[in-house]
Amino acid sequence: MPVPLAPYPTPTVPFTPPANGGQNQLVCSGCRNLLLYPVGATTVCCAVCNAVTAVPPPGTEMAQLVCGGCHTLLMYIRGATSVQCSCCHTINLALEANQVAHVNCGNCQMLLMYQYGARSVKCAVCNFVTSVGASTSSTEQKSSS
Questions:
Q1: Are 126 and 107 in contact (CB under 8 A)?
Q2: Both 111 and 89 in a single domain?
Q3: Is residue 10 part of a domain?
Q4: pTM over the 0.85 mark
Q5: Within the chain, how many helices (H) and strands (E) appear?
Q6: Where in or outside the cell is it found (predicted)?
């Protein structure tokens, strides 16, 4: 005997977006598309891949980095020490601004960023290895922010 289907319950209070039209954004955990969602939402379902992405708690500061494996833009909670890419599964080191330093390549003068305290850094443009660290060169600049 078939079971009768009950009608969808009618919402007692219809959803109304915030008066200021407040929306936030985050990156889909499935397909990496940028998702917009109303302030107060706890999860967001992607219209492209149907993945459900959890919304970080209000007031959580987010940061971004580019994956070293596949060059996908990754968003993560500021303060994390590493971030795993959901596309290629590379574990990326997440450095704060005060944990990185800059030096100009000793060959092509391209500005390079590296983990502060490293002894050398290889230029991705010309593959030249510039020595840094204990014997700091005059071009080395530590980030202050």
A1: yes
A2: no
A3: no
A4: no
A5: 0, 13
A6: Nucleus
